[in-house]
Amino acid sequence: KCIRVRLIKNGKKITAFVRNDGCLNFTEGNNEVLLAGFGCKGQAVSDIPRIYFKVIKVASFSLLALVKGKKERPRL
Description:
It comes from Gulo gulo (Wolverine). One of its GO terms (biological process) is translation. InterPro entries: NA-bd_OB-fold, Ribosomal_uS12. The structure is a single chain. This protein starts with a strand and ends in an 8-residue tail after the last helix. Strands 1, 2, 3, 4 and 5 form a five-stranded mixed β-sheet that branches. The protein has 76 residues and is mainly beta. The longest helix has 6 residues, at 63-68. Strand 1 and strand 2 (13-17) form a beta hairpin. The chain has one helix at 63-68, and strands at 2-6, 13-17, 33-37, 53-58, 61-62.
């Protein structure tokens, strides 16, 4: 349940964790995502090595609100 993201700031490609079941269905190619730190003090979580970030928002909508059905992302 991880996605590859290219950062706008410096063009680096990183891997980010997508949290709940079904959240991966809300991400599409070329969407802007908001990332947050995943582990404590910039460290990786023990069972997921080399993953330092998690996805919080997709296309300016909270991922948790999309999963719960409170928000609906417009389809283009």
